[in-house]
Amino acid sequence: MEERESTRSAWRSGRRADGKQALIAAAALATAICAAPAWGQSPPAVDVAAWPALPPQPPTDPKHEAFVDGLLSKMSVEEKVGQLIQADIATIRPEDIARYPLGSILNGGDSSPDMAARVPAPEWLKLADAFYAAARERKGTYVPLMWGIDAVHGQNKIIGATIFPHNIGLGATRDPALIEKIGEITAQEVTVTGQDWVFAPTVAVARDDHWGRTYESYSEDPAIVATSAAALIKGLQGEVGTPDFLGAGHVIATAKHFLGDGGTNGGKDQGDTLASEVDLIAIHAPGYVAALKAGVQTIMASYSSWRGLKMHADRALLTDVLKGRMGFAGFIVGDWNGHEQVPGCTKSDCPIATNAGVDMLMAPDGWRDLFAAMVREVKDGTIPTARLDDAVRRVLAVKVRAGLFEKPRPSARPFAGKFDLLGAPEHRAVARQAVRESLVLLKNAGSVLPLKPGRRILVAGDAADDIGRQSGGWTLSWQGTGNLNGDFPHGQSIYAGIEEAVGAGGGTVHLSPKGEFQDSPDGKPDAAIVVIGERPYAEMKGDLVTTSWSAMHPEDLALLKRLNAAGIPVVTVFLSGRPLWVDPELDASDAFVAAWLPGTEGGGIADLLFEKPDGSRPYDFRGTLSFSWPRVADQVVNVGDVPYEPRFPVGYGLTLGGAPAAQGATP
Ligand code: GLC
């Protein structure tokens, strides 16, 4: 899959694929074909009656239906096909809409207006207006565009936005009300810059921590995923059935990636999920049931396969189960050229995916040729008219429900252009609360925590003063790399938060990533806070061959041991997108905090590490693991296993007093 990634990352950085890239893409396609069932092999059998049955979701509205019928009757084949294709802003310009009546655009993780790096917020809103105008001015039947963006932990592509903890940390909060609030704030900050659709929440149930997208999952426990995802959708879209639903300041949400993306063999991104149908239903489906009940409007198909069949081609699961049995009345969007991985398909020609039930193809770069191919395939019957009209009806219905036909240009909508909402103090306060509630205290020997702020504190570790590192992937860039603290005008590093807390207490702080200190009576630190952990990554770039941290980064264990040997109490703050095997690091620490990927509010960590100068403790640890922590390197262990023998179980977490963290403690 590496070949595929280099093609994709080349594309995401806006470089056109050259001959070499085309060769790489061909190799990737060959890989995909090999992963497919052998030609003629029948797809895995599905017992539709075994799946959860739900009434049509979102509920249909006769007014909307009539409006959609009227539109459909006026639309040409080209206009209908256009609604089923989504292009990336790296390759489409507003002026292209006149000829290509596409229904949607997106910006992939590395795409931005004019493909510039660090584009200021007003430029995003300007581009949204330009595309809106292009759709308005096009001759023919007017259908508004939808602009999709990966706002997966806040409006994370935009400079100044509030960046929340990634889902793995939110799962540890067990606080749906907080997650709903995060959804509301995210939706508001998205509308500030003119987008109307977010590709969130991920409802993956990650079952193997080698997977590079584990941090996008709330939990290995489907019940935690279901509760958390429903809360985020409610915050993003508003409560289904109320006047607030898809109203001002709300956006269209996406449950992704259907189905079984977190269950692939070996945790390989875009790999093959071999689970039985019973386990697919019990483990990977509950998040979608909750999302449907919360009124989610779109669902994204997964790159992964189920038992050898690519999800983008799995008609039984996409159409018979999701749209039929489970009553999904929104639309299914494909993943980024996900259709290309279907045997017999290319990025610009894939009737198999459309006929299987993918309603809108995410075609970042092949959209022109795909448009021509789909028009041809509708006219020659390869894509039946009934399938075309069903897909278009679904897309139009979502646009009608979201009020897009009535809404004015993006910059005239509520919250649009109110750039001071990006990283507003009240938004940051919620993010800081989320950081506090997400932290899980795994060890606190001798009650070394909380620390007194009036002491001499050494802050060590190469992740201590790096807002990009503490935010992880999907932050300003696709991989979350290349970011400097200056790129986060409304952020605070973990070190800066500690400096603030200690300063208030009259203590002293010394920052030394390598942990150097004066070994003298008045130089030796009273305690060392060592911030270490994973560097940012996204998707397949994060797949691991081992989960042993000391095997990957022995330098961190050496640092902990050296401080420990000097008799300095060591508090380790571990940044990771997943549980990793850290027994040696735990042994070399007096206290150990699983901090996940906390986002821009690094101060939330100091809130829990220090008591106040007056000795009060306004906050306590309340986070509990939503993932099992491994006992040995590369152990794949999940709640429900028999026997179940993790190092720390789901639900584990200490308070400062040493008692188990009770949910509902001081947030
Ligand atoms: C990516 C991801 C998906 C994301 C999409 C658009 O490949 O799989 O989660 O929403 O492309 O960026």
From TrEMBL:
Residues 439-655 form the Glycoside hydrolase family 3 C-terminal domain. This is Glycoside hydrolase family 3 protein. Keywords: Hydrolase. The keyword Hydrolase applies. InterPro entries: Cellulose_Degrad_GH3, GH, Glyco_hydro_3_C, Glyco_hydro_3_C_sf, Glyco_hydro_3_N, Glyco_hydro_3_N_sf. Gene3D superfamilies: Glycoside hydrolase family 3 C-terminal domain (3.40.50.1700), Glycoside hydrolase, family 3, N-terminal domain (3.20.20.300). It comes from Segnochrobactrum spirostomi. Residues 77-397 form the Glycoside hydrolase family 3 N-terminal domain.
